Every structure is written in C-alpha cells, then in structure tokens.
Amino acid sequence: MKVFKVILLVILGILLSLSLLIFGLALTLNQSVLNPDFIAEHVERLDIAALADEIVREQVPPEAAEFMGESLDEVLGDTIADIELWMKEQARDGIYVFYDYIEGRSESLSLIISLETVKESFRANLLAAILASPPPELVGFPPAEIELQFNEYWSQIDEEIPSALELDETMLDAEVMEQITHARQYVGYFNLAFIVLIAFSLLLILLIILTHFSVRGSTRQLGITFLSIGVVSLAGALITRSVASSQLVQNELPSTLQAWAPEVITDVLMPLGLYGIGLIVVGIALTVISFVCKRDQHSYY
Predict the structure, then answer these.
(1) In this model, does residue 83 exceed pLDDT 80?
(2) Which domain holds residue 290?
(3) Quick one: 137 and 181 in the same domain?
(4) Are 245 and 285 members of one domain?
(5) How confident is the model at residue 301 (pLDDT cuts 50, 70, 90)?
(6) Number of domains in the chain
(7) Three-state secondary structure along the chain?
(8) Which of 105, 115, 132, 156 lies in disulfide reach of 100, CB 3.0 to 4.6 Å?
C-alpha cells in the first residue's frame, strides 16, 4: 500500500510539474501575443511616423523624386507627421478587427479605412511646396494662377485615389486566408485547453493533498514542485529574452524596429517571469510551512 502511494505521488508530481510548465507558456501567450490590448499598446509605442517614412521613401518612383527634388522629402515628411495619429488609430482598429475574427467574435474579416485625411494632408503639403518652389513652367506666375493650375492637376490625381480602402477576405491571397482560418481554429482550441489546463492543475493539487492526507507531506511536495517550476520559468524567461535580443541585433530590421523590438520581447516574456516569481514565493512559503508544522497537526481530520 505504501509503495502504491509513493508511485501515485510521483506520477501526480510529474503531471503537476508538466501542467505548471505548460500553463506558464500558455499564460504568456494569452497575456501577450493573443491579447489585442497588448498588441495595440505596443503599436501605440511604435514610432509609426519614422517607420512609414522609411517605407514610403523606398517606394517613391525615381521619376517623382527627380521631378519634385528636395521638395518631395518635405512633402512626405510633413504629410506623415500630419497623419501619424490617424495611422495609429487605423492600426488599432485593424488589430481589434483581426482579433475579433481570430477569436471567433466576428464571422467576417472586414475593415474600411477612410483615406480622406491622407488625401487632404498630402494635397495641402504638395500645394505649399509648389507655391514655395514652383516648377520651371510655372515660375513667374502669381500664386492664384499656380493654385488654379494645381487644382486642375490634382483633380486628375484625386479621381485615381479612392476615398476609402476596404480590406476583407477577398483581397487576401488564398494561401494567406487559409493560414488565418487555421489560426482561428487553433486559437479556439487554445482557449479551451487553457481552461482545461487550469482545472486539471487544480485537480492534481487536490489529489496530491488527498493522497498525502497530511499537512507536512502535501505542503512539502507542493512547495518543492512550485519552487522548482518557478525557478525554471524565471530562468527560461531571462534566457529567452537574452537570446532573442542578441538575434535581433544580427537581423537587418529598420532602425525604428531595432529600437522597438527589444522592449516588446521584454514585455512578451514578462508574464512568464512574474509567473515564475509567484511560484517561487508560494513554493518557499509552502516548504517553510511543511518544516514548521507540528507533528501532532500533520494530518487532516
């Protein structure tokens, strides 16, 4: 009977250790990558204006750069600065729309982005640049005439730029949409497994307590288990952060992302680190209780 009890406690201890390890990883994902508030907060911290400036300048056609000259840099810079808040708002809306779909709260993936703010800002900055430094064919013309010519030119551009951009499943590549659909299924499984894992861990703790049927035995085993998994979780968070940060240095990311990514990595791993610290504290407390518990109070009655 005693041998059976020892074997049972060993099995329960191993299962509890695995459950606590997996729960730490699941908690980290649940509080970071799978949390739209977390993603939106870090996008808010990102210097979107600087990132957009780097990307847009790489996409500017050589003909446009040659025609506008140095004025193009000023127009792009002023426009991006004007719409920085707008870009963050659109990014935030897009994040919540995507997560609503991924987490099953919405049956369709659709986002409408109004481009009027962008068009108005670009038009105003482009006109200001042309008035300040007119092209050769408009040199000597009064500002009113230059603006009239610009309005005719802009009306042609305005017709080609849509007033709103609608993003939905039909605009995505079939392979990409298939991956998103699979991700939606996996997130559903994950959310269910997360709840089951909590219940399973609590059940294992209860079984260990009932099997020992003593304060000393149960608190000591649980304390050692919590302490061990806490140390592993905390060490894993610190090591992963160090390795990931060193890998980022080797990757050719835009300078804006180079400064932003390490902070994101730290915050992603923060739940795992705090989880480890919490287990260590609880583990130490339970272990101490197991040693100070009086011999005549070692059993549950």
Answers:
(1) yes
(2) 2-34+177-297
(3) no
(4) yes
(5) very low
(6) 2
(7) CHHHHHHHHHHHHHHHHHHHHHHHHHHHHHHCCCCHHHHHHHHHHCCHHHHHHHHHHHHCCHHHHHHHCHHHHHHHHHHHHHCHHHHHHHHHHHHHHHHHHHCCCCCCCEEEEECHHHHHHHHHHHHHHHHHCCCHHHCCCCHHHHHHHHHHHHHHHHHHCCCEEEEEHHHCCHHHHHHHHHHHHHHHHHHHHHHHHHHHHHHHHHHHHHHHCEHHHHHHHHHHHHHHHHHHHHHHHHHHHHHHHHHHHHCCCCHHHHHHHHHHHHHHHHHHHHHHHHHHHHHHHHHHHHHHCCHHHCECC
(8) 105
